[in-house]
Specification:
With 463 residues, this protein is mainly beta. It is 11% helix and 29% strand. The strands form 10 sheets. Strands 7, 9, 12, 13, 14 and 15 form a 6-stranded mixed beta sheet that branches. The protein has a 4-stranded mixed beta sheet with strand order 3-4-5-6.
Length: 463
């Protein structure tokens, strides 16, 4: 009977408060005390009764919060009790705010790290409809972050999946789980936005295009999110140049331009062979005197992987960056490119300029039969490459210079660009050359070659 009387009292109070004629009425339910001056409705409980909020799971709550609900100012302040998280939650106009303050009688531990994020890791700039997701766990909410110029267009799966539109910046996608106990460890996926140019390779997977990383390995973060034209106009060229790798070597510190004699980063390999036990990727092992150092040679075949000038050449390795073939490349363990990328083949680099180029010949940029090549003279020197039908260049190759494998000197920085590919010939490896040795006569030589001790730029392509 007491419960019935209390219900009738509450119902009467609600009717009074909702009636325009009694807009300023103040009501106490459960007692005959006068309401406080600041209170429009007071519920005075006995020692064994409370007020029960609407009860619903996280899924039921999210189904209620449709587009009309989220757009309504009238929904602000709505409260429920979430039976999934065991928390009172309030809608603040953009999100459900828990009242648990990350404490709960039912709290046991923070959630486990989510499953690996699934989704594309190499993307064309401005691509829409990309989906990234993790496995949903009941009672866990998910907070996502994406690269700076990307946009989340929708969420699904109780927040465990997002649909995004990519920008031009590479970066990380992260998802952080949380529950009433707090935040768990985030899962992270590195994503890279590629720069696409035309190619004479028409069969799959190319279909007439090659996708390059949009910057040299080691380039400053300042330029990594820029468009190719913005990179070309950048007035701090060193940011664009990046690191210089000896052919076939991994990222171990030798590639840094700051790696000088002053800090012990340079070794003179002399003219003889040096036979050492390489690691599982056929690289200089950690702890060896040569590890992480630029190695130059005054004699022999000038190959850091075994400077044996005899006919046996036992220690030379031609598969340090490609354990497949030119036509079907497969990334090797020593390849310095990040996940999803690899060092390009000679065929791939040749295909974006002039497929019928002759060995060792140089051509003016205007002789390109694929894409339009233009030497940039303002900001950062280098070649801008524009596909047919494109309104602007989609790739920029800066003139980053070289580190000479016989003298340890840096040369032609700002005048020439030298880009390694994975192909070899005898004791040499092939390079895509652009520039003019500092003269106004700019040329492109897509079949240039040098000794493997030279340190040159690497521009990765998609795997």
């Amino acid at each position: 009977m007491k419960s019935k009387n209390l219900f009738l009292a509450i119902a009467t109070a609600v009717l009074l408060l909702s009636n325009g004629a009694f807009m300023n009425a103040q009501v106490t339910v459960g007692s005959d005390k006068t309401p406080e001056s600041f209170s429009i409705l007071e519920l005075v409980s006995s020692t064994h009764n409370g007020m029960r909020l609407p009860q619903m799971t996280t899924e039921q709550r999210d189904n209620m919060a449709d587009a009309v609900f989220q757009a309504s100012v009238e929904a602000w302040g709505l409260q429920i009790f979430n039976t999934t998280t065991h928390c009172v939650e309030t809608w603040n106009g953009s999100a459900w705010i828990t009242q648990c303050a990350y404490t709960s009688l039912d709290c046991v531990d923070v959630p486990d790290q989510p499953s690996a994020i699934t989704g594309n890791i190499v993307i064309t700039k401005n691509t829409a409809g990309l989906i990234y997701s993790v496995n949903y766990v009941e009672g866990v909410t998910y907070a996502w972050t994406i690269p700076s110029d990307w946009a989340i267009t929708s969420t699904s799966g109780n927040g465990s999946s997002i649909t995004v539109t990519a920008g031009i910046a590479s970066g990380k996608i992260t998802v952080t789980p949380s529950n009433a106990c707090g935040e768990g460890t985030a899962s992270i996926l590195n994503v890279n936005v590629g720069c696409i140019v035309q190619s004479t390779l028409t069969a799959p997977p190319y279909n007439g295009y090659v996708t390059f990383m949009c910057y040299n390995l080691g380039a400053s973060e300042n330029v990594q999110s820029m468009t190719p034209v913005e990179q070309a106009n950048w007035t701090t060229p060193d940011d664009n140049y990046g690191d210089l790798y000896q052919w076939g070597r991994q990222t171990d510190g030798h590639q840094l331009r700051s790696n000088t004699i002053a800090n012990g980063g340079v070794v003179n390999g002399g003219g003889g062979a040096r036979n050492i036990p390489y690691d599982s990727n056929s690289q200089i092992p950690v702890g060896d005197d040569w590890y992480g150092k630029f190695v130059y040679f005054t004699g022999g075949i000038r190959d850091w992987h075994g400077n044996d000038a005899t006919s046996t050449k036992v220690y030379r390795n031609d598969a340090l960056w490609n354990i497949g073939s030119e036509s079907s490349p497969k990334k090797a363990g020593g390849d310095p490119c990040p996940d999803g990328w690899r060092v390009p083949t000679q065929i791939e680099l040749l295909s974006i300029f002039k497929n019928d180029a002759d060995f060792g010949n140089s051509y003016p940029p205007s002789d390109a039969t694929t894409n339009t090549w233009t030497w940039n003279t303002s900001g950062t020197p280098g070649c801008l490459i524009k596909p047919s039908g494109s309104s602007e260049a989609t790739l920029f190759l800066p003139a980053a210079g070289e580190r000479v494998g016989t003298t340890n000197d840096f040369m032609y920085v700002g005048a020439n660009g030298y880009y390694w590919n994975s192909y070899t010939n005898s004791s040499y490896s092939y390079v895509f050359f652009e520039g003019g040795n500092g003269t106004p006569s700019v040329v492109v030589n897509p079949l240039y070659f040098v000794s493997r001790a030279y340190a040159l730029s690497v521009r990765c392509v998609v795997e």
